[in-house]
Write a structure and sequence with these properties.
The chain is mostly beta strands and about 750 residues long. The protein has 7 domains: about 100 residues, Immunoglobulin-like (Sandwich), CATH 2.60.40.60; about 100 residues, Immunoglobulin-like (Sandwich); about 100 residues, Immunoglobulin-like, CATH 2.60.40.60; about 90 residues, Cadherins (Immunoglobulin-like, Sandwich); about 100 residues, Sandwich (Immunoglobulin-like), CATH 2.60.40; about 100 residues, Immunoglobulin-like (Sandwich); about 80 residues, Cadherins (Immunoglobulin-like, Sandwich). It is built from no helices and 64 strands. This is PCD23 protein.
């Protein structure tokens, strides 16, 4: 960084300072001085290695590092030293108050080898000691006096200078030794006056030793030998009288050496008694003027400044060269006239303010103010706005410095204005103007509608979309709050701050496959302007439903002897899923030995695959047993889901089998004496068919012409109906039919 300094009068420093800032790790902590500024004093006659004072920096808690000290600036001539371990500051060379009365040192502390420093300012006042005596400009001088000069006449002005300051540099004048009591001296001004008349007839020469003594402790003294000689025969009986005006004017911008005033005094005496010299007794302490003691021409000795001092009052003495000398005094007033040499200065170099947007033109913004140290018309200020971005939107009162708007402002178009203002004699100030926001914009969604697809197995609390709405306003007016205004059936919610839409419950496409609702973006103002967007959420299917048979157990029948591919029954299984997840395929899982049956995989129609014979297999059970069949319904999802159902198929009998006697012939022997009604025998036939087809009726179709026997048609039992006679008939042959 480059740092410049400027005093209150606007004068910049002759050179700039370079400042290097090292960015250190935040964990480093320096040793901090107990005070940010130390003040010490040391007399200028202090010997070398004299202790001036001690600075102390405290290390951080728990630190084991040692603090060291060094002087980093303020001592270009090496007049001071500091103990690096204890911080004791000592003199290293002889000091001189008159050369430098105040020393400002910057002392740094370092903790171990850390790159981190802390610093403190040490102000050392070099106190004055009385080491300089008053010094006369000359060691001796001669003055002539006249016996006619009255008491009180100033005959000489002694002047000595002392380099010391304060009381050590304050001078008192006195007469150290004298041959006569005819003289006295003003102790402050050094003016030598006559105390009585010196008679001419004595023709005496006087020698005075004038002492200049300072007020130090102990005081120092210098002597001036002053010789008064040769009393003039001419009588110096007239004092000088001023002829020139006691008032003079001078412009403040005149150069050094400019003639300000011609002081004229007349003395009617003759010879040296009438020769006048001019002297400034007081009012010229800052040595702004030089007076030629012979000609009386008063000129400037340095540059004048009306703003620093606009009036000088000089006490001027006109002294003749008589013996004794006579004098007269005059107070000369010099008025320093102003010229327009001061640049106006703004009270602040940077003004910052704010104004609300959308206000009518003429809205007060701020008042800027500058001062000019000149006087009169030179101090009257005229303000104007310098051209720049947006400056046309403002007006500046040229007299008062009041800034108002010239147009209605819009924060969203331009929020910050940087304006430069200038009075007529070039001084500028920067104005940063912030336009305050009003809620004149509604939040706007990036899109008027959104459509998004999510799977139905989405976890509860998952974010499905981040809504984004922008509001050109600022602050609370531009903070967007999100909400939903339509029923989402408890499925979705929105984060009011981020606009993130999240699921709030498990989704089920089979229950609801689409959600449509509106989202609202509002800002935080009391007017609540808002915008809406339409959300459409499509629920995509996942294979989460098993195909389900309408019945878990089916019954069906089929006539035996049917040709292959005869439809038996159609089963149905439903799957609530969609697409491939809901497409059902049918198959026979088990129990279909010899591939007796087949099923249409798409339609679920169960049919015969071969001819059926009731007599071989009476029924097939599609159940989960090792020798039975199961019907399987599977979907086409990934992974596939399935379910089973049992089907009982009864094969219906066809009368395709005749009854068959257990024996083709029955041989029975019976006695002729068997009584009527006796059971002779029983025939038996079987029919492989079933039901009525298997119900057998027995009849005698031949051999029982005379009715000897009776046949039970249901049981096949043969009973005797007539008495037998061996001698009549030995053998009967009955033909019995089973139907």
């Amino acid at each position: 960084l480059t740092v410049s300094a400027q005093d209150g009068g606007g004068l910049p420093s002759a050179s700039n300072a370079a400042v290097t800032v090292n960015i250190l790790q935040t964990v480093l902590v320096p040793a901090i001085f107990e005070r940010s500024r130390y003040t010490f004093s040391v007399p200028e006659d202090a010997p070398e290695d004299s202790v001036i004072g001690t600075v102390k920096a405290r290390e951080p808690p728990n630190s084991l590092e040692v603090v060291s000290y060094r002087i980093c600036s303020g001592d270009p001539h090496g007049k001071f030293s500091i103990d690096p371990q204890f911080g004791i500051i000592r003199t290293k060379k002889q000091l001189d108050h008159e050369a430098q009365s105040v020393v400002v040192l910057t002392v740094q502390s370092q903790l171990g080898n850390s790159p981190l420093y802390s610093s403190t300012q040490v102000n050392i006042s070099v106190t004055d000691i009385n080491d300089n005596p008053p010094v006369f400009l000359t060691k001796s001088d001669k003055v002539t006096i006249s016996h006619t000069q009255p008491p009180g006449t100033a005959v000489y002005i002694a002047h000595a200078e002392d380099k010391d300051s304060g009381l050590n540099g304050a001078i008192k004048y006195s007469i150290a030794s004298k041959q006569s009591n005819a003289f006295s001296i003003d102790p402050s001004l050094g003016v030598v006056n006559l105390t009585r008349t010196v008679f001419a007839e004595k023709q005496q020469e006087y020698t005075l030793h004038i002492a200049a003594e300072d007020c130090g402790n102990p005081p120092l003294t210098s002597l001036l030998m002053l010789t008064y000689l040769r009393l003039l025969h001419y009588i110096n009986d007239n004092s000088p009288s001023f002829m020139s005006s006691p008032l003079s004017y001078v412009m403040e911008d005149v150069e050094v050496g400019f003639l300000v005033h011609h002081i004229i005094a007349k003395d009617p005496d003759e010879g040296r008694n009438g020769q006048v010299t001019y002297h400034i007794l007081s009012g010229n302490e800052n040595k702004a003027f030089v007076l030629d003691k012979i000609t009386g021409l008063l000129t400037t000795a340095q540059l004048l400044d009306h703003e620093v001092q606009e009036r000088y009052s000089l006490t001027v003495m006109a002294l003749d060269d008589g013996s004794p000398s006579l004098s007269a005094t005059q107070v000369l007033t010099i008025i320093v006239l102003d010229v327009n040499d001061e640049t106006p200065v703004f009270l602040k170099q940077l003004y910052e303010t704010a104004v609300r947007e959308n206000q009518d033109p003429g809205e007060f913004v701020i008042k800027v103010e500058a001062v000019d140290r000149d006087a009169g018309l030179n101090s009257l200020l005229h303000y104007e706005i310098l051209p720049g971005a947006g400056y046309e939107k403002f007006k500046l009162n040229s007299d008062s410095g009041e800034l108002v708007t010239a147009a209605s402002l819009d924060r969203e178009t331009q929020e910050v204005f940087s304006i430069k203002g200038s009075p007529s004699r070039k001084s500028t100030a920067q104005l940063y103007l912030t336009v305050l926001d009003e809620n004149d914009h509604s939040p706007l969604f990036a899109k008027t509608q959104y459509q998004i697809s999510v799977t139905e197995d989405l976890e509860e609390g998952s974010a499905i979309l981040d809504l984004s709405a922008s509001d050109k306003d600022d602050g609370l007016n531009g903070e967007v709050i999100y909400s939903l205004i339509d029923d989402t059936y408890g499925a979705f919610a929105v984060n009011s701050v981020t606009g993130s839409i999240v699921s709030t419950k498990a989704l089920d496409r089979e229950t609801k496959s689409q959600y449509t609702f509106r989202a609202v973006a509002s800002d935080c103002s009391t007017h609540f302007p808002r915008s809406t967007t339409v959300m459409t959420v499509l629920i995509q299917d996942v294979n989460d439903n098993v195909p389900k048979f309408e019945q878990s157990y089916y019954k069906a029948s089929v006539w035996e002897g049917q040709s292959p591919k005869t439809d038996i029954i159609q089963v149905f299984a439903t799957d609530l899923d969609s697409g491939l997840n809901g497409e059902t395929e049918y198959s026979i899982l088990s129990g279909n030995e010899n591939a007796t049956f087949l099923i249409d995989s798409a339609r679920g129609i169960l049919a015969t695959n071969t001819g059926l014979d009731y007599e071989n297999t009476s029924s097939y059970r599609f159940v989960s047993s090792s020798h039975q069949l199961v019907l399987l319904a599977s979907d086409r999802g990934t992974p596939s889901l399935n379910s089973t159902a049992a089907v009982l198929i009864t094969v219906l009998d066809v009368n395709d089998n005749p009854p068959v006697f257990s024996s083709p012939e029955y041989h029975v022997h019976v006695k002729e004496s068997v009584p009527i009604g006796s059971h002779i025998t029983e025939v038996s036939a079987k029919d492989c068919d079933a039901g009525t087809n298997a119900e057998i009726t027995y009849t005698i179709i031949s051999g029982n012409d005379r009715g000897h026997f009776c046949l039970d048609g249901r049981t096949g039992s043969v009973n005797l109906m007539k008495t037998l006679d061996y001698e009549d008939t030995v053998k009967f042959t009955l033909i019995i039919q089973a139907t």
